[in-house]
Structures are given as C-alpha cells and as structure tokens.
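[User]
Um, tokens okay?
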Amino acid sequence: MMNMKIKYIWLLACIIVFSACNKREDFEMIEEEVQLPPATPGSADFSNFVALGNSLMAGFTDGALFIAGQNNSLPNILSQQFEVAGGGSFIQPLTNDNLGGLALAGNRLPGFDPRFIFDGAGPAPLESVIGPVTVTTDIVLNNPTGPFNNLGVPGAKSFHLLAPGYGNLGNLALGLANPYFIRMTGSNPDASVLQLAATQTPSFFSLWIGNNDVLGYALSGGDGTDPITPVDGPPGVGFNQTFGALIASLTASGAGGVVANIPNVLEIPHFTTVPHNPVPLDAATAAAVNQEYVPYNGGIQAALAALEGTGLFTAEEAAARIISFEASETNAVVIEDESLTDLGAINPAFAGLPKIRQATADDLLVLLAANFIGTLADPNNPLSVNGVAIPLADKWVLIPAEQAEISEAITNFNGAISSAVSAAGLALVDANSLYNQLLAGGITSGNFTLTSNLVTGGAFSLDGVHLTARGNALVANEFMKAIDATYGSNFEASGNLVDIGNYPTNYSPTLQ
C-alpha cells in the first residue's frame, strides 16, 4: 500500500510539473538551451576589412550623410560582426553632425542639404520642422584624417573608383570631383578610391558599385542629362572592363571579398510611390481643361485621317494620345513622350502637335513629382496646372522605353559582376533578388517584415532610394550568409547574424 501511495505521489508531481510547463497556451514545450558553436572565419581573414562603393556603402540615408546613418552603415554593421571572427578596427570618414548637408568654406553647397524627416504626413526637409540649421560638415575647414576603411562615396559610379583627382578640391568647380570623396583624400588629393583601398593592403573587402551607373539616368527621368554607363570600353569608361579592373586590383594581394550585384532600381519607392493618376478634378474644372485640349485632340484625329493606310500613324497610338479628363479623384497626368510619332516630320501640316499623352500604369513617376504635380506654371492662370494643362517634362517620368534601357543595362552589368566574382572565387550577394522580394511582399527577419513601401515599409529611407538602418541590417545578414557559403565561416550557425529589430527605421528631427 505504501508503494502504491509513493507511485501516485510521483505521478501527481509529474502532472503538476507538466501542467506548470504548459501554462502558456497549455501546450508550450520545454525549451532546452542550445549551445551554439563559437564564431570562426573559415578561410577568410577579417583583420583588415575595407569597403568600397557608393552611397549604399557610405551609410547615406534620408537624403543625406550624417553620423547616425554612418554608424549604421552596411560595412560598419559587418565590421562589428567580423570582430567575433578576427576582425580589426574599422574607421569611417564621419561627418560633424546629425543634420546632414555639406558646406564649402562656410557656405552651404547647393544640392547638399540637411536630411529628410517624417513630419507625420510624409518625408519633409529637416528645416521645415526645426527651422534653419547651420551645416557644420565643411569640405575645406574640417575634413577628417584617414586612412579610412569605409571608402563608400555617395554619388560614385563604377568608373569613379578609378578616377584620379576625384577627391581633389581643385576639380570641384570643373565637375570632376566629388565633395564626399574630397573629405577622404587628405594629403593625396589625386589618389583614386581604388588606390586608397590598395595602399591599405586589405585582407578582406566588400564592394557594392554600379547602382549609380543606371540610377542617375533613372532619377533624371531618362532625359539624357545623366546617361547610363556604356557596357564596354576601356577601364574607366565601360562598365565591364572597369569592374574587371576593380576586382583584379583588390584581389592582387590575395584578399578575399564579398560583392553585391545591382538591384532593380525601378522597384525602389522613388519610382513606385507616386501613381500615374493622382489628379482630382471636379466636373467644372475637368470640362474647362478638356476645352483647352479640343484643338490638340482635333489635330490628332485629323492626322489619323490624313495618314490612314500609310502605316505611319496607327489608330492605337492616336487613341493613346487623345487627352480627356473627368470628374474624378484619379485622373492621369499628361506627360511628354519622345517615343511618340513626330507627326510634323511626316506632314508639316501637323507640326504644331506636341508628342504628349496621358500616363498609364506602365509609366513611372519620380518621387519629387509629387510636389510638382498640381502647381501652377503661371501663377496668374488657374488653368496652367502642371501635369494637367501643362504636360510633365521628360525628367519627371520614366516611360516604358526608358525602363527597358535601364533593365537591359542592369542585366548586362550583373552578368559582368557574376562572371568576375565567380572567376575570382569571391562571395556574391544577389541584391537584385533581395530588392525584388521587398517589392513582391516583403522579407521577414525575426519579428519584423520589411517591404519597399515608402515610410511604412521599414526597408527604404525617406528619400525613397537608400536603405534605412534596419534595411542595412537586413542586407548585412545576406552578406554574412554569402561569406559563410564561400569561405566556410559560420556567422549564421554561431548566432552572429544581427537582429534587425535593434536598428531604427527613422531618426528623430532632434537627433543629437
């Protein structure tokens, strides 16, 4: 009987313990502490890590370069993780404040303004919230002292990394120097980015370059002022040969490295946020605008009739060129389209017909168009509405033909990157695929899902182009996974990928 009592006492104790362990949703399993292996570098040597590239490496975010963004830059995040696997110090050319912007001998450089902030409605200039600020990062008065491990230069294209004098103040007025790189060259103003990297004899490098080789064209609406880099040409001219020269030089002393390819820039918020049909009109205004387009629409119809049967002007194009507004919240903007038929060249009688049409969902409007559409070209004429009575110029829109040019260039450039990286035995990060995933529904890491939505998506900063700190953390993990796969390191297996939730998606206007 005593043995029976003991038996049931132990059974009761087991039930109590089991029940206590199941208080959370009744079925939570007892978790055992998992012992992770120590971090190891594999065949990589992280003792002297140098990063090269453009703004994506520099920590540029919210339209500016500032201390907090630099501290959360992609290579700085990587360097902090590399420390557990033999990494050394990592020096960045830090700016002087968290305002952003650049000055030249006390005067603010045009186009290099303080950062954007979120004002509760959307991206806004910092000064619109906190008032005027003094930009303290001066490329003449207070440049930092190198050498720098982070050689990411905002605005740099592939060939700029080879260009002598790109950091020479004397070349700035000639358009041959970059203010951000001027801050890095110190006593060697004519040294190229690649030379400054090579003189440090890096044991490991990261390279993310080529984005601006197509992005500049895209940001300018494909208007021709910032052309796409040629695929071929000697180093310093053609992308393929330039990239090959970069890889050859960086690996000449046996350094390992990780390289990212070029993401599809057409899928960043800068081109996906502003809809093609953002114009609200009441019935009276729509009728008034339509009346203004009667002569134009009549001319298109006359041209179709005159050219019928010639194959020079189709009914489909004529229909696409007819302008019509209605009482609606979603009227499409009117845009210039250089790909349309030049009717005046076919028949002088139609020389006055501009190459314009209303936008469709296949057109991409740049982010800054949001602040331009609806303004008046003539303050004294209430009907001179930009995007309605006044067509948007080429710089505001990427038409399908321009998008095709960009996509073709990215495909060609990424082919060259893949070939060069494979031949050199380096690690490759498929940033193109990563950005596609952000647009297609998002990427989940830990407790967070990042998407490409502006402001709310968490991956892209307020300028619609550059990543947030959290976006950089996400990409840093992909870099480490690629390094693990190529060099046998174990950042992922040892639990040394970063928690992206530890990195912010925006910065306060009063950030100090």
Notes: The first helix runs from residue 2 to 21.
